Amino acid sequence: MAKQYETVIGLEVHVELATKTKIFCGCSTAFGAAPNTHTCPVCTGMPGALPVLNKQVVEYAMAIGLAANCEITRMCRFDRKNYFYPDNPQNYQISQLYLPIARNGYVEIETGDTKKRVRIHEMHMEEDAGKLVHDEWDDTSLVDYNRSGVPLVEIVSEPDMRCAKEVIAYLEKLRQIIQYLGASDCKLQEGSMRADVNLSVREVGSTRFGTRTEMKNLNSFKAISRAIEGERERQIELLEEGKAVVQETRRWDDNKESSYAMRSKEDAQDYRYFPEPDLVPVVISEEWIEAVRSRQPELRTEKLERYKREFDIPRYDAEILTESKSMADLFEAATAICRKPKKVSNWLMVETMRLMKEHGMEPEELRFSPENLAKLIELTDAGTINSSVAKAVFEKVFAEDVDPEKYVEEQGLKTVHDEGKLKAALEQVIADNPQAVSDYKGGKEKALGALVGQTMKAMKGKANPGKVNQMLREMLG
């Protein structure tokens, strides 16, 4: 009988924090600036420059630790991790090894009907390195230090995950918690959330871990899934052939859908960690922890419970709306204005989602205001505009955040309630379409739809379709 294998996975997740300035200096952390413009003597590692810790970094790290059920270390400190690489200007990185800010936490994930806790071993603060830019034309590498000194937290899980599905559920849960806290935008494509995957395989039933490899360069959930499947197959193949898995760091190439070895642990450098001499330890008092805890926002789990109590909307809608904090905020703000949760939910779930998909947008990129969505709902409910006009107006609201009341007025889109005008249009349509009239009288219900369509066209879409339908039936007996 063929051997059955189990995959064992642990993650190291790096998250760039949403502070305006870097961890040890006052340089901007904004993404996308011209190379080397957000730099100073501290973050470029000039001799004699001294770091000063950004308090907001500690508070964001504590907030994430508390939300992930971790114990906060009352006295934590920074350590120097020594290594030589062109994107690392000081030739060391300030990180935390011995006394990280948070330990022993967990997050709960759901895959299908299964709930599971993924334990968090520890979480530490550190500074990011710069970025090497490879110029293939000149066959050179340039270095951009804008990212150097951007604050990171690294979240190290226990090896509790067993498949790509669980890994993605864990990453989505972490991303959601961190976005709700406002501690990071967690954009994988911009590198503000990055995951390294530690993976090994073992025979089903075995309690001993296999030899693990670490995979880097994963910047999308799809790439992570593919890398896990690819590495699992590679390791099983080696074991089936009687070969050993080498403990090494591998780089995933998503275009080729394969990985290659970067360095083995045998020649991995000794980082020679020692306490960072330029920074004092951080003493975290009970009062400080309580102050951070009291500012924690309502997270998704509590939001779902409250939506069930406060708003009469289906569980499915609530789950979709709360997946992203910005969508949940939009829903709550528009509902507070028009007090019509089900209608707000429908506009967000149907038209907003459709347009987001068309434009390849994330909820965080939505630019229309809750006031204008609420106004559009009121206009539709009052019968001032009909549903097809409302959809067209919403496209303008979505793209340019126009005021729907002014736009409807300026464009003359109000529904015509003048029965005389409507009757005249209907008489003309009946006269112009004798075949459809005779089909309808002969029992073909579909023919009525064609006459309604013609009338709406004649009224430039500004009639109430229900009213048109009713009057047509009356006029045709």
From TrEMBL:
<dbReference type="InterPro" id="IPR042114">
    <property type="entry name" value="GatB_C_1"/>
</dbReference>
<dbReference type="InterPro" id="IPR018027">
    <property type="entry name" value="Asn/Gln_amidotransferase"/>
</dbReference>
<comment type="function">
    <text>Allows the formation of correctly charged Asn-tRNA(Asn) or Gln-tRNA(Gln) through the transamidation of misacylated Asp-tRNA(Asn) or Glu-tRNA(Gln) in organisms which lack either or both of asparaginyl-tRNA or glutaminyl-tRNA synthetases. The reaction takes place in the presence of glutamine and ATP through an activated phospho-Asp-tRNA(Asn) or phospho-Glu-tRNA(Gln).</text>
</comment>
<keyword id="KW-0547">Nucleotide-binding</keyword>
<dbReference type="InterPro" id="IPR006075">
    <property type="entry name" value="Asn/Gln-tRNA_Trfase_suB/E_cat"/>
</dbReference>
<protein>
    <recommendedName>
        <fullName>Aspartyl/glutamyl-tRNA(Asn/Gln) amidotransferase subunit B</fullName>
        <ecNumber>6.3.5.-</ecNumber>
    </recommendedName>
</protein>
<dbReference type="InterPro" id="IPR004413">
    <property type="entry name" value="GatB"/>
</dbReference>
<keyword id="KW-0067">ATP-binding</keyword>
<keyword id="KW-0648">Protein biosynthesis</keyword>
<feature type="domain" description="Asn/Gln amidotransferase">
    <location>
        <begin position="329"/>
        <end position="476"/>
    </location>
</feature>
<dbReference type="GO" id="GO:0070681">
    <property type="term" value="P:glutaminyl-tRNAGln biosynthesis via transamidation"/>
</dbReference>
<dbReference type="Pfam" id="PF02934">
    <property type="entry name" value="GatB_N"/>
</dbReference>
<keyword id="KW-0436">Ligase</keyword>
<dbReference type="GO" id="GO:0005524">
    <property type="term" value="F:ATP binding"/>
</dbReference>
<dbReference type="GO" id="GO:0016740">
    <property type="term" value="F:transferase activity"/>
</dbReference>
<dbReference type="Pfam" id="PF02637">
    <property type="entry name" value="GatB_Yqey"/>
</dbReference>
<dbReference type="GO" id="GO:0050566">
    <property type="term" value="F:asparaginyl-tRNA synthase (glutamine-hydrolyzing) activity"/>
</dbReference>
<comment type="similarity">
    <text>Belongs to the GatB/GatE family. GatB subfamily.</text>
</comment>
<dbReference type="InterPro" id="IPR014746">
    <property type="entry name" value="Gln_synth/guanido_kin_cat_dom"/>
</dbReference>
<dbReference type="GO" id="GO:0050567">
    <property type="term" value="F:glutaminyl-tRNA synthase (glutamine-hydrolyzing) activity"/>
</dbReference>
<dbReference type="InterPro" id="IPR023168">
    <property type="entry name" value="GatB_Yqey_C_2"/>
</dbReference>
<comment type="subunit">
    <text>Heterotrimer of A, B and C subunits.</text>
</comment>
<dbReference type="InterPro" id="IPR017959">
    <property type="entry name" value="Asn/Gln-tRNA_amidoTrfase_suB/E"/>
</dbReference>
<dbReference type="GO" id="GO:0006412">
    <property type="term" value="P:translation"/>
</dbReference>
<dbReference type="InterPro" id="IPR017958">
    <property type="entry name" value="Gln-tRNA_amidoTrfase_suB_CS"/>
</dbReference>
<keyword id="KW-0808">Transferase</keyword>
<dbReference type="InterPro" id="IPR003789">
    <property type="entry name" value="Asn/Gln_tRNA_amidoTrase-B-like"/>
</dbReference>
